[in-house]
Amino acid sequence: MTVDGRDPDIFKQFFAVKDAVRREELEFPVGLGLEEARVLMTGDHSDLRADGLALVDRDTWLGIAWLDWWLLDNTDTVDVEFAVDPAYRRRGVASRLLEAVIERARAEGRRMLTGINVAGDPVTGESSGTAFASARGFVRKHAELHQVIELPLSEEQLAAVERPVPGYEIVQWGEHTPDEWIDQFAELITGMYADVPHGDRTVEATQWTPELVREAEARRVAQGRFTYTTAAVHTDSGALAAYTQMGGTPERPERLNQYDTYVHPPHRGRRLGIAVKLPNLRSLQSRLTQSAVLHTWNAPENTPMIAVNEKLGFRPTAQRTAWERRL
Ligand SMILES: CC(C)(COP(=O)(O)OP(=O)(O)OC[C@H]1O[C@@H](n2cnc3c(N)ncnc32)[C@H](O)[C@@H]1OP(=O)(O)O)[C@@H](O)C(=O)NCCC(=O)NCCS
Known about the structure:
The chain is of the alpha+beta class. The protein is 33% helix and 31% strand. It is built from 9 helices and 12 strands.
């Protein structure tokens, strides 16, 4: 069946399958919360449309496929996540869903399926998801290491890696980028998406505009998310040189995410990555009312970032793999 995300009962059952599989597969069941996911599936967004398919036997939901249809870039691609109830695996459930996804994707003129399986052994990367993807014609394109650390970090831990960078000032904001930075910030995010290691993935980088930044901010607020941004401004030129973002949702206070960290190329090599991360971490920690785990993902080849994280005390918990299949 095609899932109508606007029907609250259907959406709840659909989400329950996806969420239960993540809880079963992962030490830390990362992923969208119910309300975050609902906003994606029911709202109107410039950059994507999300919908889904499910295989249901009478009242039993055997498995689901969540689909992201990109609308601004990668418009020949559909991103898919499969989740099958462990009680019904190895009976062709995901294979049947895949056939239905391919049929829909082709009918809408899409030429490629992509997917990321988030559960994978931290060393080998292998899981049921990688076995399924290889068996069904997907090609392995990239890996990312998932690292975690328990918060709060002590002032001593933070001070051990902190070095002030002369010539730059730190600015911070919450849900809304100040108007004075919005143009430069859109350029920095564009750079981040273009430069982040993609391995062999076929990725068309998004050209961010101030309007898209504002739309992403409004969507996060609608999803109930909170976000902390810290940026470094080059004092002499007034250029926004680096930024980092972290956040979470009140729905899952024990889980916080490290989102982007980016240093504009002319300003690299001065440890600005740490210079923005640490004040951001301090601000994030200041709102904690319980211990929490901070999550981050980096390509294994992104050694400087992983080294910084290890220095702070992050440990690996899983390795996820990005896949592509041409249609
Ligand atoms: C991956 C997953 C969706 C597969 O669902 P499924 O319904 O069991 O898959 P199918 O029965 O259609 O399997 C098709 C083929 O994939 C391969 N395969 C699937 N799971 C496998 C496993 N655990 N070990 C080895 N091979 C496997 C086999 O070749 C299988 O054919 P066979 O059973 O005839 O040998 C399911 O295990 C799952 O939900 N895993 C957790 C979430 C995930 O990793 N999702 C994929 C990322 S998007």
